[in-house]
Automatic annotation (TrEMBL), chains A, B:
Keywords: FAD, Flavoprotein. Belongs to the acyl-CoA dehydrogenase family. InterPro entries: Acyl-CoA_dh-like_C_dom, Acyl-CoA_Oxase/DH_mid-dom_sf, AcylCo_DH-like_C, AcylCo_DH/oxidase_C, AcylCoA_DH/ox_N_sf, AcylCoA_DH/oxidase_NM_dom_sf, Diverse_Acyl-CoA_DH. This is Acyl-CoA dehydrogenase. Residues 487-601 form the Acetyl-CoA dehydrogenase-like C-terminal domain. Residues 300-466 form the Acyl-CoA dehydrogenase/oxidase C-terminal domain. Its cofactor is FAD. The keyword Flavoprotein applies. The keyword Flavoprotein applies. It comes from the Bacteria.
Amino acid sequence: MGQNAIDRDNLDFLVFDWLGLEALFAQPLFADHNRQSVAALLDLAEKLAADRFLPVYKLSDRVEPAFSDGEVTVLPEIAAAHIAYAEAGFIAAPFSAELDGLQVPETVQTAAMAQFMAANVAASAYGMLTTGNARLLAKYGTPLQIEHFVRPQLAGQATGTMCLSEPQAGSSLGDIRTRAVPDGSDALGARFRIIGNKMWISGGDHDITDNIVHLVLAKIPEADGTLPVGTAGISLFIVPKWLIDAEGKRGDRNDVIVAGLNHKMGYRGTSNCLLNFGEGTRFRPEGQAGAIGYLVGEPGQGLAIMFHMMNEARIAVGLGAAAIAMRSHALSVDYARERAQGRTSQQSKEAPPTAIIEHPDVKRMLLAQKCYAEGAFSLVLLASRLIDDRTGAADKAAFQDADLLLGLLTPIAKTWSSEWGVKASDIAIQIHGGYGYTRDFDVEQLYRDNRLNPIHEGTTGIQGIDFAGRKLMREGDRALDLLESRVLATCRSASDLSGLAVHAHRLEKLWRQFHSVAKALPSVDREALLSNATELTDAFGHIVVGWIWLDQTVLIMGDAARSESRLAAGKRAACDYFYNHELPRITQVLELARSMPRVIADTPSSVF
Amino acid sequence: MGQNAIDRDNLDFLVFDWLGLEALFAQPLFADHNRQSVAALLDLAEKLAADRFLPVYKLSDRVEPAFSDGEVTVLPEIAAAHIAYAEAGFIAAPFSAELDGLQVPETVQTAAMAQFMAANVAASAYGMLTTGNARLLAKYGTPLQIEHFVRPQLAGQATGTMCLSEPQAGSSLGDIRTRAVPDGSDALGARFRIIGNKMWISGGDHDITDNIVHLVLAKIPEADGTLPVGTAGISLFIVPKWLIDAEGKRGDRNDVIVAGLNHKMGYRGTSNCLLNFGEGTRFRPEGQAGAIGYLVGEPGQGLAIMFHMMNEARIAVGLGAAAIAMRSHALSVDYARERAQGRTSQQSKEAPPTAIIEHPDVKRMLLAQKCYAEGAFSLVLLASRLIDDRTGAADKAAFQDADLLLGLLTPIAKTWSSEWGVKASDIAIQIHGGYGYTRDFDVEQLYRDNRLNPIHEGTTGIQGIDFAGRKLMREGDRALDLLESRVLATCRSASDLSGLAVHAHRLEKLWRQFHSVAKALPSVDREALLSNATELTDAFGHIVVGWIWLDQTVLIMGDAARSESRLAAGKRAACDYFYNHELPRITQVLELARSMPRVIADTPSSVF
């Protein structure tokens, strides 16, 4: 059967049955929605992705954004896709009615976004970043900043960026050197002149919209001209490509120039720039060098505020990885059904070749791929459902619980999805054999696109430090307890179902093993902990995804109307595969983590 | 320190100390060689690779082979590199003195080839294929075939290909449809007219040399015109691009046309063609359609003879993967020493950023990468040493022992090196962060080049079937016993060394666990076996590589002159990492393999 990248039957199961979306409609914020309105939005996303994003997938890889005369131009088809996306209301969808948004739950926004990312992740990045940028400003901006920097983004007249990294400061933002020098104030807020270089800026320049709203991290110099040390000295600024006056009229071109484009392995449809702020060589707004920026929040709060968008972006990266993995899987299933090669051990030599989907090793790959792709997608949807829980929390305790659980799962949603999503795309190449290694098939590009995900918005190593070195240490107990109650509830339900009790037993054992490792972390030497953090994070991800598979399988097996469906059979097969072939190795990883070996920490760098 | 892709100190250790190359010089075949002559050859390889192959690495990725007017042209720099390689004697090196070869041991040829593959795997493919083609013909060809098809290849006047796959028959060669119709005979042998399509032909056309010697698998039709079923009906033919007469004079252009080039993810410097034989549209040799081919060996022996070249190619694929992995690692070490970012947990916030090689998670990645890269390289060198053992065997029993052990290790040398070699290249991107994802850094291309290796010359799944479904079943006992005696000898030596006894204990336990699984295989249901074959093959590879690491570490720790060297410290650190962080999970894989679960085999394809 020709499958969509994201099977709608499965998506409905995940969103409505597994995550209980309809419960949200009782909340005032989401009162305008119902199952039908959500279905209509998901229909629209599916159609728009298929009509405007997918058809230019290959083309946007072959024809990269161009840079000449200081300006970046992108494929007209990419620009048109973004505008269509904005006009259909997807940028504004999660915003309040006041801002002409639809107030859709985050879970729905995520489900819709998955369609665009599966179709063309690079083309969808402009929209994703714009929503994130506008959300941050809607929360922390002044009314006039919202008027002139949020509304145009929601309307598709401007896009947003996040300008964090610098050539010498990627993972270590405390070392940024971009300076923000006070320059009075105007109706839009306290003004500064920004001087510095920002690297890896996705959507940093383009000709899709007239204006671009950069959110820039910079440091306000001390009285002696030096920059404050570390992250505490970071502030956040709005730096528009074109200045805007109090009435919203366009003024001077700001002093932001494109120093060059990065030429990437994949993800080529998104322009990715080195931006120089405040050089004064090409643009001198109001007659003076220095990019004009407006302070957001208070000085020194920059990183804390930026984390609002960064956490959202981390989940979005996980979503992109999962969506690409879903399409990689769907294409693999289609190919494996069509491609005839060899015979199974039950067939005679004279039989015509069988579809490769019948070969045991191909089934193995498809099962693994399904576990990674759907597991990652489910994990990201769960994170977005926690955002909705937090948004609609009845009291402070409920808010904190949702926030803690979300905090615990965010590095997992980012990094497990990225690492194993790439693996799903890798398997897609393998299933396609030699054909999959050619640029004639999408899986080759899907792999290259997906390979960015373990890198951007914090590498896998950085997520491991966040998870094992921070999340588990500081707030681990409460957050783990919250998750534990969900995990053990699933185990109890599974214990009653034939064939699943053995999985429940394994999961509970692994969970308790992990929990005891986690409790011992505060007494572990820091270098030893850091050298084992990535493995531990990955092991936790596997346990969480194992829980998700069991939870979904229990749910669908217990639903009389669906328990005999193809969807149920697929969930059951994936669950059985994951528990038999994937989870057992986690036991050894946790066994190792219990002793926190110093093998790596004690290795001097001189041995290499 | 700026390192070569393949550290010479390490290479010398591997070849001379670990593999005891000098013992071979006592054999008449290798009597002309000594440590100095081998060193000179390796020096030459290193220099030629650095001077001619490496400088065009990027360029050969950007500028792919071109196809116009039916002819393929490659970069002049690639052509020049190949000719320089041939002129330096590397194609002929392993051949007999009669053929103007140097009679170098295979171990040395492999060590030399590694330099070229590390520098530019795609450019080196022409040479690798030519040596393999010429070797097959030197063994199975007639004297006149050797004169006109082997000598020109050794002299760099022709290159060789292997034409096996067809668009509908990749892994399943029994289904090829290329026909060979008898067409009399001439001085060069029994003639046939070849009609059919061959896919994925590396070096299938180019303008590097005048002539190309294709080795083509085809079927001679039965009396009723049908093709014989299965692999038993396959014969092998020499099909030159240009016909040659008995005196070696060039005649008509043969009826072989290029239908198109494949555009690959990487490995772009090697032309890769769809070839149509016998269409008669452009060339009609001797006035008639049909490519003229000369039978090699007897009818029906084609696949058996071709396995001579295929087994060599499988080891060469493992070597390519290992060599790319070695360069990926060397570049990663260099970058990790140069790139400053963040601080270790022992440094204060005010300290200047540290080189990332000091970060625990970066050390973890470098250790893993070193284990995969050097482990794979050692494994392939070991396989080539077994070829030398076989060549120089004193009697039939010694020949058979070397052949059995080589047969057991060949699928591992191909597939473990490919799978984990790619992983080493993947880690290189991760260590380089965002920079590694750009085409400005070689690691991005190294990854793309390396990704072919788990596919060509038999995918990982096919190697798993060969290993678990054939090698372990048919000849497993004797081959495993031979390896066991080596493994246990290493364990005994390691037991006496401080800190290594624990590894010896683990290795012996894993080995016995694997051996008992292997012994039980003949009674396992075939579909269940095939569905677990890839995991089992990978586990065996890990055990073999674990043994290799321990064996090398024991050797160097016991060498007083070297036990305090950087080389020894590196071996020891990698060994400790591999035994602590990698091998434990194999226990679980073997635990699983013991029960040979039917989870995958029983999954119906309809669930996807």
